[in-house]
Specification:
single chain; about 0% strand; about 230 residues; elongated; Serine Threonine Protein Phosphatase 5, Tetratricopeptide repeat; mainly alpha
Length: about 230
């Protein structure tokens, strides 16, 4: 019992010594600690103030300003969507005038798609790669569009990398098999039939209800046939 008591007393003493050292450290460094705490509080308050009083109003304005650009995009009036109509701004103005907003970020996606449609693939890649979203459909579509641009530029290695990234970005029945199939086709063009078969089989086995899965036996057989030659 005495041993246990002694051990307990030793632990209490060790804790008291540690607390004493901590108190002494705080006392010796009180001024720099207060400066650091003040800086942290200032940064937090500045961040929330920036979000509330700067970003939020700009976000609201950007969304209303981009309405017509989105309408023009839906109507396939791509130049008006991109550059505006003289009264309403286009996506390029939204990107320039409303930096850091969600609308400006989305406008980069629209601009990338428009430049791709116009055949300006390198410019399209710049905008699409500058776009980022948590959306489970739009982000894979943006990555896949970059892959399409690289295909048009004749860079099949980069294209297949982007298709795989698009397929992996958000695993779902809608976009994943689409970009896996594009990756498979590109692997075939690269004469990489082993990897083509891998992605075709993945579509067939993991996404059997997708539209792409219906033709996978044909593509698997074709790739296997090339391997035998």
């Amino acid at each position: 019992m005495a041993k246990k008591t002694n051990k307990t007393e030793e632990n209490i003493q060790a804790v008291e010594e540690a607390l004493g050292k901590s108190e002494q450290f705080i006392e010796d460094n009180q001024k720099p600690i207060l400066v650091i705490l003040g800086a942290i509080i200032f940064i937090i308050l500045a961040y929330f103030g920036f979000q509330r009083f700067y970003i939020a109003p700009k976000e609201k304005n950007a969304a209303s300003q981009m309405f017509m650009a989105e309408k023009y995009f839906e109507m396939d009036s791509l130049n008006l969507a991109l550059k505006g109509d003289g009264i309403n701004p286009g996506f390029l103005s939204i990107i320039s005038d409303y930096k850091l907003t969600k609308s400006a970020n989305l406008a980069k996606y629209y601009a990338g798609v428009i430049y791709m449609e116009k055949g300006e693939f390198e410019t399209a890649i710049d905008y699409l790669e500058d776009f980022s979203s948590d959306d489970q459909v739009i982000q894979p579509m943006a990555l896949g569009a970059v892959g399409d641009c690289y295909m048009e530029l004749g860079n099949m290695d980069k294209a297949v990398d982007k298709y795989i990234s698009a397929a992996d970005e958000n695993d779902n029945e809608f976009t994943t098999p689409v970009f896996l199939q594009k990756a498979g086709w590109t692997y075939e063009l690269l004469k990489d039939y082993d990897n083509a078969i891998v992605v075709y089989k993945k579509i067939k086995e993991e996404y059997p209800k997708s539209n792409e899965a219906r033709e996978m036996d044909k593509y698997i057989a074709r790739a296997e046939g090339f391997l035998k030659k």
